[in-house]
Amino acid sequence: MKHNKLAIIGVGNMAKAIITGITHSNLAVGEIILFDRYPTQYEGVGAGTPVTFTSAASAKDAASRADVVLLSVKPQNYPEVLAELGAMPDCTDKLYISIGAGITVKSVSDALGGARVVRVLPNVPMLIGEGVSVVCRNPAVDAADFDFVCSVFQSAGSTVLIEESEMNRMIGVTSSSPAYVFRFIRAVCEGAAQQGLTYDRALIDSVCDMVIGSAKLLKGSDDTPDELIAKVASKGGTTEQALKMLDELSFDQALTEAMKACTRRAEELGKTN
What we know:
Rossmann fold, ProC C-terminal domain-like fold
């Protein structure tokens, strides 16, 4: 199976992150064919790279010219796009990569006559080559196809292989969770501002560095999160008081419920598409 020509249907931020990874890697992708309802999305994409970029008049036009098709539209737009692609005489000859939240491999494959489909949950740190993408496939996808898809997402981060039954629950763990981190950073900055510190870029950067350093410490340590918390929170100290307040305000429970809400919405999207 050739992977030289890649069609991307829906050129939003995630698609652009994937493109950046591909164009800065050694992947043998010679042409990327773009289609988006808003052609302004193409501006600046792929500039200065050795990959040839072309645009298409429709989703079907893009897919018909490609070996591999990346479906990067919103979940609610899947039925329309799949109906259009399913009308292609050779739709089953393509390899499809689907990144729509809640959209199952089976629903895509069935709409495309039993085509080969890899489902991926990427996340926004792919924009800087630090993404985590969760991946699964249907049985029709062979090792060469699967290795290619994994290489695409590894070009902008790392991949985690799981069973599809776990995919919706993983959305709240890796895909949506960068927003939780950004929300945490914002809350720390706002808390600092309420105590008289200046909420500026320098403060944001300091908090970001704290988050990055803390994550690196945990990842590089044999300690559990609880063990590291205990090392920071000395008895009777300031951190202990802060953690008590987080407990009183049900910090952990709020995050757990947020993740459950994420999973429920993914399941709803899968049922309606």
